[in-house]
TrEMBL record:
<keyword id="KW-1003">Cell membrane</keyword>
<feature type="transmembrane region" description="Helical">
    <location>
        <begin position="20"/>
        <end position="41"/>
    </location>
</feature>
<feature type="transmembrane region" description="Helical">
    <location>
        <begin position="47"/>
        <end position="64"/>
    </location>
</feature>
<dbReference type="InterPro" id="IPR035906">
    <property type="entry name" value="MetI-like_sf"/>
</dbReference>
<keyword id="KW-0472">Membrane</keyword>
<dbReference type="GO" id="GO:0005886">
    <property type="term" value="C:plasma membrane"/>
</dbReference>
<protein>
    <submittedName>
        <fullName>Phosphate-import permease protein PhnE</fullName>
    </submittedName>
</protein>
<keyword id="KW-0813">Transport</keyword>
<keyword id="KW-1133">Transmembrane helix</keyword>
<keyword id="KW-0812">Transmembrane</keyword>
Length: 71
């Protein structure tokens, strides 16, 4: 495993964990999502979900580009 793969993998994991931890009340972007769901603010839920999705997608794209450049 190269020296750049660990931080990249950790970054990917942190994005996903912040969503899950927030949904269970521990903070992170998931807390905002949970709050919007509880208040039935579906427009806000959609925007937050879309931003999480775009962030994960961008992170995966960057990771793939970095991995390809290294290999």
């Amino acid at each position: 495993m190269s020296s750049t793969s660990r931080p990249k993998d950790r970054w990917d994991i942190n994005i996903r964990e912040s969503t899950v931890l927030g949904l269970v009340g521990a903070g992170g972007i998931g807390l905002q999502l949970n709050s919007a769901i509880n208040s039935l603010a579906w427009n806000q839920v959609s925007v937050i979900f879309l931003m999480i999705f775009v962030t994960v997608l961008a992170s995966e794209w960057v990771s793939a580009r970095v991995r390809h450049a290294i290999i």
